[in-house]
Structures are given as C-alpha cells and as structure tokens.
Write a structure and sequence with these properties.
This protein has helices spanning 8-23, 26-35, 38-44, 46-60, 67-74, 119-123, 125-153, 165-190, 198-222, 233-245, 250-264, and strands at residues 85-87, 91-95, 111-114, 155-156, 159-160. It has 273 residues and is mainly α.
C-alpha cells in the first residue's frame, strides 16, 4: 500500500489510529500502534508517520512511549526499545514502555529519572524534537477546540461570549500561533540541508511557544471552569508543559539557536518562501 499525504488509504489509517488512541493509552496503545504498522511506517515513510501519529496523540490526549522509536530509528538503532531523553535543566529521563507512572515527574506518564544519556539520544535529537513539535501542535489544537466550543456555548449578559472582541482576539492569536508552528514543522520536514538540526530545533521551539500561548489564552476563555479537575483543559496544559521540557524547552532551544547562528555568522535559508 502506497501512502501519500492526501491518499484515501492514509485517511483510513488515520481514523484507525484515532480510534485506537481514544480506546487506550500507555502500553496498550503502544501495542495497538505496533499492530497497525507503526514501526514499518516509521522505517519506510517517517515524514508521513511522525506528523500523523504525534499530532493525533496531542489531539486525543492519549500517550504512548513512541518517542523512543523515533529517536532510536533516527540513530540507526532498532525500534521497540528505550533510550534516555534529555529533560530541561540538564537532567535525563527514560520513558518506559510499562505503565509505571512517576509521581515525581508526572502522575500519569511512565517517565523516570536516570543518571545520564547516551549516543542514541544525541543522534536522534532532531527527529525527536520534530515529533514532539507535532505532539505539541496537536495538544494546542485540542485546547483551542475546547475554548472555542465553550465560547460558542457560554452566555453572559444575554450574549454568547464568542461575540466579545476580547474572546475573539485570544482565540485568533492562538490559532495564528498554532498555524505558524505547524508551518515551521512542515518546513523542517522539507529541509534538505540542515546539518545542525537548526530547522527541527526552531520548529520544536515554535511548537512549544504555541502550546504555551494556547494554554494561556484558552484558560482565560474558559475562565473558572478551566481550572477544575472535571474539565479536560488542565490535562492538555499539563501534558504540553511536560512535552515542552523534553529534548529542550522553548527557552533553552531559543538560546541554543542563538548560539548556532552566532557561531555561523549568518542565518541559513531553511525554507523556500
């Protein structure tokens, strides 16, 4: 089966993956994705498989340890295993494939501290950042969808709050940030000459910034209900904060990009405009 970005087969596969993510997370979802051909797709069509799977993880709120596969594959190693991943603050973690949550880092995800990293993590850094960028974009779109629906449903002073200019501005700014991050991620995918991984670095930073923008604006649109444990927003916000800290936070990556550009002495063309 030959998959292209607009093929009917890809649409069917995306729906199958979405269904699996709505039904399970963690180790069960990891197994379900493997049965759907995730490892083969990552090997044969990574430019399609990575955006598809990771964006859907963000949109559905599901989780699976598939970031390991992206980093290992990019490093030329077999998928299905584990590799240490850098976390903000010069620390390292392992995203385990068993459902063993770590309350020290996250009370839902099986992410655990380790002493140090290895060569695979460094070799697969660019691909891993790109994957996390798509995950952050998916989570941002999920937050925006929640805020938009609330704005359409909520009535204050006899009017739907979606008619208020301040609400519209927050939603519009969120959408612009998400669309910009997605364009940056696509440019990173299309970049043919990027030996420093600068395109993926900037794409992940843009996606992290978009997610933080979405969290801030959508929380304001939702108001008090967005702070409650019963509402879904807080789960997406928490997930976005953790994903932003993996493989370099937005702040760390921005500083790193500045160092790369200063060392080069010029800004390389990363996208054809």
């Amino acid at each position: 089966m030959e998959l292209t970005s607009d093929s009917e087969e890809l649409q069917l596969l995306a729906e199958s993956i979405r269904t699996a993510m709505r039904a399970a997370s963690g180790a069960k979802l990891d197994a379900a994705l493997a049965s759907l051909g995730w490892h083969d797709m990552l090997d044969e069509i990574p430019d399609i498989a990575i955006p598809l799977v990771f964006r859907l993880l963000g949109e559905t709120g599901a989780h699976a340890p598939v970031l390991n596969d992206v980093v290992l594959s990019a490093a030329g190693k077999a998928t299905g295993g584990l590799t240490p991943l850098p976390l903000a603050g010069d620390s390292w973690v392992v995203w385990k494939r068993e459902d063993i949550p770590s309350s020290a880092i996250d009370d839902e995800l099986p992410i655990h501290p380790v002493a140090e990293g290895d060569s695979a993590a460094h070799a697969g850094l660019a691909a891993g950042r790109q994957a996390l960028g798509w995950w952050l974009v998916g989570a941002s779109r999920a937050m925006l969808a929640l805020a938009r629906q609330h704005a359409l449903d909520r009535v204050q002073f006899g009017r739907h709050i979606s008619s208020f200019q301040a609400i519209r501005h927050r939603l519009a700014e969120t959408l612009v940030a998400i669309e910009g991050a997605e364009a940056t991620l696509q440019a990173a995918t299309d970049a043919s000459d990027d030996p420093d991984g600068l395109a993926c670095l900037l794409a992940k930073a843009a996606a992290g910034r978009a997610a933080l923008t979405a969290a801030r604006h959508c929380q304001q649109v939702l108001g008090g209900i967005g702070f409650t444990a019963e509402h879904t927003l807080h789960r997406h916000v928490k997930r976005a904060l953790l994903l932003d800290s993996l493989l370099g936070s937005t702040r760390e990556l921005t500083h790193e990009a500045g160092k790369i550009l200063r060392a080069k002495g010029f800004a390389p063309r990363l996208a054809e405009l």
